[in-house]
Amino acid sequence: MIAPRHWPRLAGLGWDVARSNWTRAPRRPYRITLILNGRCNCRCTMCDIWQKRPAREMTLQEIDRFFQRNDRFSWINLSGGEIFLRPDLEEVLDVVLSRSRRLFLLDFPTTGQTPDQIESVIARTRERHRPPRWFVTVSLDGPPDLHDQIRGREGAFGRAVETYRRLSRLRTRDFRPFFGLTLQAANVDRVEETWRSLQKEIPQLAPEDLHVNYAHVSSHYYGNDESVLPPLEPARRELARLASERTSRWHPVAYLERRYQALLKSYLQTGRTPLPCAALAASCFIGDDWTVYPCSIYDRAVGNLRDHEFDLARLLAAETELARLREGIRQGDCPNCWTPCEAYQTILGSLGRRVRA
Questions:
Q1: Contact in structure between 29 and 70 (CB atoms under 8 Å)
Q2: Can you give the pLDDT at residue 250?
Q3: Domain 28-348 falls under CATH 3.20.20.70
Q4: How do the domains of the chain map onto residue ranges?
Q5: Which of 313, 319, 276, 283 is closest to 301 using CA atoms?
């Protein structure tokens, strides 16, 4: 249930989703992914963010200026690196939540390696701000031995589970934690074992509490290569098994998860984004140095917000090739991916549309 005070924000998100179904060139994205930093406390084999040279990282003052000028997002995804490595994260969250007057959904992932800090930052922030919906995903990619190996940290599994356990105690109708598993070459044959390990630690865990996505390659963000991708047939089998374990109850998050996984099968068969992608229309990706990209995968930089006084609409309007670029993305003239960072708003912007051949 949505509290009555949040109905205007829900209506705003509904309007944004509806508008994304009938127009190819909205005036502004309603969802952004904002990369707060490039530092990480894990050394993952599937992602080389931790090996990148530090960028001229965005400051708290710049973040405040950005959200003063861009205060109408309905959905904000924060990410890193590991965002809890920012000593000013609590202040960053205050800026995001106080400036974003139409915000309906805030979400971000965490490696879950600092349970005390993560619990305290979120608990204190929730005392001051209550967005209609707030989701936190604790990354977990295998049973204890494999997760620690993938993450490059001994004890990483235990700390991630402890973080989830603590966040679960804070769960309300407006705040919910999830586990997030990235299906990759290293774990595709151990997903069921991962689930059993989690249930052993948290017996009340439901299949809907574990979100599964597929590993992708990105030069400008992950800095990885195709060696991380799982073999297709084992991936398809795992997706079919996971889908069979989920309930069919109606819930917007459950619907998006089911639809994402159903269309992921099509993506694995064709290598093409199954629906016209909404990147650079309903959403965009902003790196930790304020460079704007269509998404986390496509390395076509659109511009840097530092050069446009942190005005996203001004930057997008200044790009003379933007309409052509956006239409090319819709037609599949891009790397073609199916990562949840782009897939969810693409699904919402293609309601009733057939999967393209």
A1: no
A2: 64
A3: yes
A4: 28-348
A5: 319
